Amino acid sequence: MIGSMGRWEPNARGRLEQAALELYIERGFEQTTVAEIAKQAGLTERTFFRHFADKREVLFGGTGRLQELLVSTIASAPDSAAPIDAIAAAFEAAGTVLQERREIVRQRQTIIAANAELQERELIKLASLGSALADALHRRGVTDLAASLAAEAGIAVFRIAFEHWINDTGQPDLPQLIRESLDELKAVTAGK
Amino acid sequence: MIGSMGRWEPNARGRLEQAALELYIERGFEQTTVAEIAKQAGLTERTFFRHFADKREVLFGGTGRLQELLVSTIASAPDSAAPIDAIAAAFEAAGTVLQERREIVRQRQTIIAANAELQERELIKLASLGSALADALHRRGVTDLAASLAAEAGIAVFRIAFEHWINDTGQPDLPQLIRESLDELKAVTAGK
DNA sequence: TACGCTGATGACAGCGACTGACATGGGATG
DNA sequence: CATCCCATGTCAGTCGCTGTCATCAGCGTA
Q1: What CA–CA distance (Å, rounded) separates B1 from B21?
Q2: Count of domains observed in chain A
Q3: CA nearest A149 in B: which residue?
Q4: CATH number, residue A30
Q5: B19, B72: one domain
Q6: CA neighbours within 13 Å on the CB side: how many for A30?
C-alpha cells in the first residue's frame, strides 16, 4: 500500500530537526532537554545521539549543503576570474539561497544569537567553510597564502553583510549587501 | 609575618591554570577530569568552577590581556594612521609579545589543535576580539562598516600568519609574517 | 516456507560537566 | 571582643553523552 508504515515512521532525522527547532524557539536552547526533543519526535534520547553528534549539531544540518554550493560555484567560475571575485560570486549565490528562506533563517539566527555555545558552533562551521573555500581556490591554481586570505576575507565580508541583513528591519537585498561589504573591504585595504 | 600562610595557599586561580596546562599536555584535554585538575591544585572541583566558567576557559585567561594590548595600541595610533594600518600595528605588537612566550604559546596551541571544543572557544574569543577592535576604530571616527571590516580582515591576516608561525619548523618572525600576510591580502583584494 | 542477516531503534547503566544550597572558619573591621 | 566577610568545602542533583545489549520488521536465500 502507498504510505504503508514500515516498522518506524520515516525521516527520523528530519523529525528531530523540526522538534528541536520548535522547542528551541519556544523555551530556548538551554531550557530544552534532548529527552524532550526526542519525545516530541516520537523517539528516545539515545536515538537523537545516533543522528546528531550533540545537542547543538541538530541546528547545523544545512551548512553542509551551503558549503557544497559555495565550493561548486567557485569551481565553475571562469578561469579569468580573480580569486576574490570567485569568492564574491559564491557568497552572492549563497546569499540568494538564504534570502529565499528568509524566515527560517531568521528564526535559526535568533536561537543562535541567544546562546554562546551555538555561536561557537557556528564559528567553527564558518572556519571549516573557510578551509573548503581555500581548497577550492587552490585547485584553481591560486597560491596557498592568497587562497587562504581570499577565503577568510570573503567570510568576513559575508559575516558582516549577513549580520546587517538579519538585523535591519527593512528587507534589504543580501547579495547587494555582500557586494557593498566587499567594496568597503577593498576600500579599507587599499594601500595609500 | 612575611610569607606567613593565610587560611589558604595563595593564587588558587594560577595554580588551577598551571595544573590544567600540565594535565592537558600529559593526558590530553578530554582524558583529564576537572576533579583531577582541582586535586592537583590542592582544591576541589567546586572551587574550579568558581574561578572558571567551564573546563575550557582555564586555557584562555591570557586572551583578555592580549585584547587590552591590541585595543590600547589602536587607541594610541597617530590620527593620520589609516584603519588598516592601526590594526596592523596592533597585531604586530601582539605578535612581538607572543614571540617572547614562544614555547608556552606553542604548548597551548598544541592542546587546542587536538580538540574541536577548544578550537570553538578560541574562535569565539577571536570574534569577541574583533568586536573590541571595531569599537576601538569606531572611537577614532571610523565608520561602523569600515571598522568592522578592518577588524575582521586584521584578524584573518593574523590567524593565517599565526598558523604559519606555529607550524613552520624554522623560527620565522611573527610580526614579519603578519606584514607579509597583510600585503598578500592587499594584493588579493586589489580590484583590477 | 524457514532460516538467518541487517539496521534502526529501545532500554539501561554509568561517567563527567556543571549548578544550587548550605556549612565552615580564618582575617579584617569596628 | 563581637561581627561580618568571603574563599573554600560538602553534598545532592540535573543533564549531556556513551557503551552495551536486546528487539524485531524487512530482506535475501536455501
Answers
A1: 32
A2: 2
A3: B185
A4: 1.10.10.60
A5: no
A6: 5
For residue B60, the SS3 value is coil
Report chain A residues touching chain B, CB-CB < 8 A.
Answer: 82-84, 116, 119-121, 123-124, 127, 145-146, 148-150, 152-153, 155-157, 159-160, 180-181, 184-192
**Both A87 and A171 in a single domain?**
yes
Extract the C-alpha cell encoding B133: 577592535
Q: Is residue B93 part of a domain?
A: yes
B67 & B52 share domain: no
Q: Which residue of chain A has the CA closest to B191?
A: A186
Interhelix angle B102-113/B144-167, nearest 10 degrees: 100
DSSP code string of B107-126: HHHHHHHT-HHHHHHHHHHH
Q: How far is CA B168 from the centre of its chain?
A: 19
Which nt is closest to the CA of A10, judged by C1'? C8
* B148-186 per-position pLDDT tens digit: 999 999 999 999 999 999 999 887 999 999 999 999 999
CB spacing of A189 vs B191 below 8 angstroms:
no
pLDDT for residue A38 is more than 80: yes
Identify how many contiguous H helices and E strands chain A contains and give both numbers.
9, 0
Looking at residues A15-43, what average pLDDT do you find? 98
Chain A residues within 8 A of B168 when measuring between CB atoms = none
Residues B52 and B87 in one domain: no
Instruction: Mark whether B82 and B156 lie in a shared domain.
Output: yes
Please state, in angstroms and rounded to a whole number, the distance separating the CA atoms of residues B22 and B101. Answer: 17
C-alpha A135/C-alpha B81 separation (Å) is 34
Cell numbers for B160: 593565517
Polymer length in residues for chain B:
192
